[in-house]
Amino acid sequence: MNDLNQDPTLKKQVEMYFDQVLDPQTRDEFLNKVNTDPVYQQAFAREQNIRDNIKAHVYRPVNSNQLIKAIKNQIRKD
């Protein structure tokens, strides 16, 4: 895990991959590195684990139908 902290380029690449910012060619090159380099594998797995935990434990309220109707009515009034 120290390798991820020592290489800001690796950290940036991993974040860009998960944020879906990489172009297809760069994404494929990155995934090849992940499959062959243990440091990349570790960084990838760590970021994936963090993001999965956030998705699982952060509560996101669902928009209610009343809220949607109220917003639509407000827009129509203006």
Question: Please, could you describe this protein's structure?
Answer:
By secondary structure, this protein is an all-alpha fold. It has one domain (2-77). 79% of the residues lie in helices and 0% in strands. The chain has 5 helices and no strands. It has helices at residues 2-6, 8-18, 24-36, 38-57, 65-77. α2 (8-18) crosses α4 and α3 crosses α4 (38-57). It is elongated. The model has no long low-confidence stretch (mean pLDDT 88).
Shape: elongated
Distance between the termini: 54 Å
Helix content range:
over 70%
Q: Write the element-wise H/E pattern from the N-terminal end onward.
A: HHHHH
| Portion in strands | under 5%
Radius of gyration: 19 Å
| Average pLDDT over all residues | 88
Helical element count?
Answer: 5
Per DSSP E runs of 2 or more residues, the count of β-strands stands at: 0
How many strands, which pairing sense, and closed or not: the largest β-sheet? none
Note poorly predicted spans: none
Q: What structural class do helix, strand and pairing data support?
A: mainly alpha
Give the secondary structure arrangement, pairings included:
Blueprint: H1 2-6, H2 8-18, H3 24-36, H4 38-57, H5 65-77
Helix pairs in contact: 2-4, 3-4
